[in-house]
Structure formats: C-alpha cells, structure tokens
Design a protein that fits this description.
Structural class: alpha/beta
Radius of gyration: 15 Å
Shape: globular
Number of helices: 5
Length: 157
C-alpha cells in the first residue's frame, strides 16, 4: 500500500491484528509509514516468540529500522490498533516517530491518555503527535471478541 489516509492505514493494521488472532495472540497490529509508504509491519507475538517485548509496535519498528538501516525513523507515522503501553510509546519516542495514530483506547495499560499520558509529558523529548480513536469501534470489537472467547468455557468433548 502506498499513499492512503489514516483510516486506510488503520485498515492494514487491522489485517495484521487478524494475523495475531490466527496465532492465538492478543490481536494487535501495527505498521510504520514513511513518505506515504509502509516501511515496517508487525503484529503481537510475545507468546510465539517467547519475547515479552514482541508487541506489534516493537515488531513494526524493528522491521522499519532494519529496512532503513537506522534506529531513527524520523518523520514516520506509527499506526497501531490499540493505544500503546509505556514500553511501546518509549520505543516510538526513541525511534523519533513523528506521529502516532491508534484505534482503540486501552483502559488497563494505555500510555497516551487512558492510564497515563506520557505523550504529553514535557520532560520527555522529542515530542510525538498522537491521534487516538481512528476506526476505534472495529479495533475494539476485535479485542473484545478475543477476550470474550478466552473467558467463555470451552466445550468438553
């Protein structure tokens, strides 16, 4: 995908979240866009990789940094289906991500306004522009469905 708007790129992040769901991971997808084109993609895979840092955002940033051969992703936009946690927001700041666009708010671990708002902490530099709620109902429904299925009793056969 090249070009596109925030809703279009979030659509791709939703496709990536569905891939996480196929692997029985929490369905979160992320991508990095620079100069209008996708340069890195990822989805949650901490269980499969036995890596607590393998959140969708981190996986996408690693892919983009490898492609750029630079840990700095200056001017890039991070799209993610769920509000980032402290770890992922910190990584985005360190990578010099310019914009962060997310779908669903995370009332348990969100670091962009739900639990904390580190994106507006004046002592943290550089600044990152944050836009939450893009396609939030779709992003939230995917997550709610995943957790509802986890809580329901499994059939004994």
């Amino acid at each position: 995908m090249s070009g596109g708007n925030d809703a279009d790129f979030m659509g791709r992040a939703l496709e990536l979240a569905a891939r996480a769901l196929e692997h029985d991971e929490v369905p979160v997808g992320a991508l990095i866009v620079s100069a209008g084109r996708i340069v890195g993609e990822g989805y949650n895979r901490p269980i499969a990789s036995a890596d607590p840092t393998a959140h969708a955002e981190i996986v996408a940033m690693r892919a983009a940094a490898a492609q750029a051969r630079n840990y700095r992703l200056s001017g890039a936009t991070l799209y993610v289906t769920l509000e980032p946690c402290v770890m992922c927001l910190g990584a985005a700041l360190n990578a010099r991500i310019a914009r962060l666009v997310f779908g669903a708010w995370d009332a348990k671990a969100g670091a962009c306004g739900s639990v904390l708002d580190l994106s507006r902490e004046p002592k943290l530099k550089p600044r990152i522009d944050v836009f939450g709620g893009v396609r939030s109902s779709e992003c939230g429904e995917l997550l709610r469905g995943f957790f509802a299925a986890r809580r329901s009793p499994r059939a004994i056969g």
